[in-house]
Amino acid sequence: IACVLSGLPESIIAAACARSGQSVLHVDSRNYYGGNWASFSFSGLLSWIKENQQKTDIDDEHEDWRKLILENEEVISLSKKDKTIQNVEVFCFGDQDSAEDVEEAGALPKLPVLGDLGAEGVAQESEEECPPMQSALPEVESQEPEKATGTEPAGAMEGNGTEITSQNASSPSTALGESALELGKNEAAPSETSAQEQKKITYSQIVREGRRFNIDLVSKLLYSRGLLIDLLIKSNVSRYAEFKNATRILAFREGRVEQVPCSRADVFNSKQLTMVEKRMLMKFLTFCLDYEQHPDEYQDYENNTFAQFLRTRKLTPSLQHFILHSIAMVSETDCSTPEGLQATKKFLQCLGRYGNTPFLFPLYGQGEIPQCFCRMCAVFGGIYCLRHSVQCLVVDKGSGRCKAVVDHFGQRISANYFIVEDSYLSEAVCTNVCYRQISRAVLITDQSVLNTDSEQQVSIMTVPPVDPGKPAVCVIELCSSTMTCMKDTYLVHFTCPSTKTAREDLEPVVQKLFNLNTEKEAENEELEKPRVLWAVYFNMRDSSGIDKNSYDHLPSNVYVCSGPDAALGNDCAVKQAETIFQEMFPTEEFCPPPPNPEDIIYDEDEIATEESGFSNSPETKPESSTEESSSGGSTAAKKEENEE
Questions:
Q1: 8 Å CB contact between 244 and 365
Q2: Is the dihedral of CA 190, 248, 312, 280 positive or negative?
Q3: Domains defined for the chain, CATH in brackets
Q4: Which contiguous run of DSSP H or E holds residue 16?
Q5: Whole-model pTM?
Q6: How far is Cα of residue 593 from the mean position of the Cα atoms in its chain?
Q7: What is the pLDDT of residues 237-274, one digit of tens each?
Q8: What is the C-alpha radius of gyration for the chain, rounded to an integer number of angstroms?
């Protein structure tokens, strides 16, 4: 299997293939993992911005690779320019001059990194070099994760979180037999400073503390019963990451930010709702949980919008707003009644599994998730090469199948299947493809949009359309305990489907929530809103939902993965990865859990073979080969014992 680019779908496919015993080569022309799913430190993001503002075509200086193409073969050239990011605009509301001579704080203690090259230029990974995160029990502070530095996407310093793990066989089972969630000490301490004495953050401080930032290119959350969480638990990849609960759901209504009650306890403790409204809300939410059993209550409105259906349920305007924008999180004009009811049901089903909201956020950012699957692939023998671009696909004229790729060194690499991210395809292949766009903004602010006793809040809010015809905007606010920003700052992500440039789509919403005055202007007035310290806007291509037949002259054994979509969750990427894997290997299980040491049975011949440094067992071969490359040939059995 040859994978080009290391985005989330490609990384999941690579991990699944390696786990099933396939040989995997995973290359990426970038010097970091994740593609448009990556996370960056502040300085890394500035470099990424510069690259996307100064895009130039890469000319071939050497045409020697064309000699590798035989007479009965043709080539499909791949794109040499990333066109997925456009309209990048950066704004600094602090004093940039004061930060000219400021350097980013020193590197963290470094662990071996997935992507560090060995003697033969191959990424080497083992459990011994990078042990998985320790479980975080409620009474014990979780182990402090260390992040690598250098060209990797992000750096971080400290933090505790939540680790999702599949239930141990010896552990008592839950009532529903669900996977266990181990909670770390992720509750924040009370604010140490009063509002009057709030610490002033300057741009030079942001630059100096740049490694404390982990800024996602794509902003998403994980539904607690979503496909990605289920896959992380099933494959045991969850041990490579830690997670934090989203702590509150917010709503923007009549110019104010309010907290939305969504669980039963929240509803009855809410001071925003009257007793009558509480009963009305609980009655409607109870109906949504099993709405399929009562088709007579909604089938007359199947062709109506969900907003129109809510008006028939005798709900007050405030309840309609909460349900539409903060629970179902759907469009007021485009969402049908069945779609709205299904979205509400999904929200309610995810409540209570890991916390009072349906969502989890990975510590250090969304960019950790592709790297977790890359690590699993490497543990089972996958080979990784960053900064390694591919020139073209080599296609056999007779069979029409792709036989090989040619890299930028002029090397011909043969494989049976090829996974390519959409951005690598040239315009000649994508002539009939119509792309959508996503508008994105990332802000660094000095306060939360809704201050409470606790500063450490992870919030999600949907802002209704500012003008008719405009989309609703999803806002995710992250605090420093998520390991995505420095202390006393917040990282705020804005996302919506594009109608114009990202700044034109999102700045009106930013202005409603934040103060955009510069540092000097802010000194002369009292601010009621949080102040923006730094902001970036950009448009990102949304290539999800495109049928493979839309691409011209693409061989049957070349599979195209899309980039990030505009949805809040990650279901699209997981579904795409599983579909492609099943097309390639219909009889194989998708991402099965690694074998337990007690379950591995060796006969005398296998033991003798392994002791001599070779193994033919599909269950142990990937682990053994990886371990040998880093620890001198220890057996797979020892490897599994150490891991346990």
A1: no
A2: negative
A3: 2-81+364-433+545-584 (3.50.50.60), 263-350 (1.10.405.10)
A4: helix 8-19
A5: 0.80
A6: 21
A7: 999 999 999 999 999 988 899 998 877 777 878 888 88
A8: 25
